[in-house]
Amino acid sequence: MFPEHFTTPLTPKRREAIAEPARHGGDKKAARREYEAMMAKAFAEMNRVLKPGAPLVCVYAHKTVAGWATLIAALRNARFVVVEAWPLDTEKPGRLRDQNSAALASSIFLVARRREGKATGSYEREVRPELEAIVRERTETLWKEGVSGADLVIAAVGAGLRAFTRFDKVEFENGQEVPADGFIREVEGAVLETVLRKVGVRDADPTTKFYLAWRLQYRTAELDAGEAIVFAYPLGVELDGADGLTAGTRALVAKKGKKMRLHDYSERGEHEKLGLPGEDGVAASLIDVLHRVLWLMENRPGRLREFLDKARPDGERLRLIAQALAGTALQGTGEELPSSPSAEQSAVRKLIANWRAVFEESLFSARSRS
Q: How far is CA 169 from CA 45, 56, 73, 84, 228, in A?
């Protein structure tokens, strides 16, 4: 039907819709504006040519939800409502692109239809309740199908877009409009909270939840600093600043240039004060306690009892955190994916296998002396 579009061995790169600064003299803002304009034009044309009742299927495979905002804004502005989102395995297992990255094993197939009317939705009364119901249902369904890791999070986020895109505009109670990127953060936060509850982590401290959520969605990959900050926002933690997770000698997040990644137990567990209560008596985060326990178990097992005597952690909550880190939920979808555990997962699994000897007896001894 369109032979002129298939006359060259490669796709026509000059007209593709991507945000590539190199094509705009290194200007990132200009590249983004061009990308957004092309996306809006493309979806507007799709809306024009679709027959009444016909669906639009859009395949999406970006590794972070930060990339959703432009796509969703373009879809909604072109008067489309996302009615479904499902992950389909599309990537070759064990490919080089998947090594030490947050690449998805699946692509997300978004199904959209024309939106009729110009209704304005209330975020608090209409959108948020619907979003929570969708997230709970979709997370449960995907979990039963064996979808986990970043694939589960991205797919559940995609399904949650229905609550937002079915309205021409969404507003807070104060009349302020909810932007697409703001809603995406809300959706991701709801998904991650649901997933963390699913793996048994209900009432952990924000820092521990952040660590588990990163491991769940991105494993050992590093993120652009901007993407990492957006990811941390709904989880209630700060990355930069004097009290941020990148600060100090016991930093949980490593920052190098414009990239961020998590420190594991081997990089921070040696610090003598890690996992101990602060000078104000406030208990340390559970992930700090676990990292110190793992390091001592591997390097100074004779000092575990002394540490537990001072730290006095909640043993049951700590065990749930360890199980969440060790579980297959952190490895992604599919048995054929490179699912060999990281060094930290191996250490956690060793701890769990010897939990009573390494932890419970030491903690019991510490309590009996108090």
A: 21, 21, 11, 19, 28
